[in-house]
């Protein structure tokens, strides 16, 4: 694995979130472009709405924030309500804006907390886990990209 620095991690986070990633639109640009009226709809044979996918991103970014704060006890069990919230709804542009602000806040907190860490932190174990911080940081970036693809696919099927 290539050695990664904290600054590299932040640059990757920012590029995917609001920059110009090589694969297309960033998370924020994609979500801002999708009208709120599509956020709660699901095409046939699709498991999650855009609203559910966005809250899933927010919650897993919350996991990273807790681990950056060295919270050993915090956990998200896969396929639980902490992983996939039930009954989420974003029905208008005001609610969409509020949700996007919440997502932006996770971005800001992750980057601020990363700035407090030395590069060596990336090679340390995640609080309460058996994998390293660098693996978690890369993982959440991959997780964001994966679900961004789903979000854009859902929107393309609905519009």
The number of strands is 0
What is the straight-line distance between the termini? 41 Å
General form: globular
Query: Could you report the average pLDDT, rounded to the nearest whole number?
Result: 96
Radius of gyration: 16 Å
- Percent helix range: 55-70%
Poorly predicted ranges (pLDDT <50, ≥5 residues)?
Answer: none
CATH class: Mainly Alpha
CATH topology: Four Helix Bundle (Hemerythrin (Met), subunit A)
Structural domains: how many: 1
User: In the CATH classification, which architecture applies?
Assistant: Up-down Bundle
Q: Determine the CATH superfamily.
A: dinb family like domain
Give me the number of helical elements. Answer: 5
The largest pleated sheet is described as: none
Describe this structure in words.
There is one protein chain. The chain is built from five helices and no strands. Helix 1 (6-18) packs antiparallel against helix 4, helix 1 packs parallel to helix 5 and helix 3 runs parallel beside helix 4 (93-115). It has helices at 6-18, 27-33, 50-68, 93-115, 133-158. It has one domain: dinb family like domain (Four Helix Bundle (Hemerythrin (Met), subunit A), Up-down Bundle), CATH 1.20.120.450. It is globular and about 45 Å long.
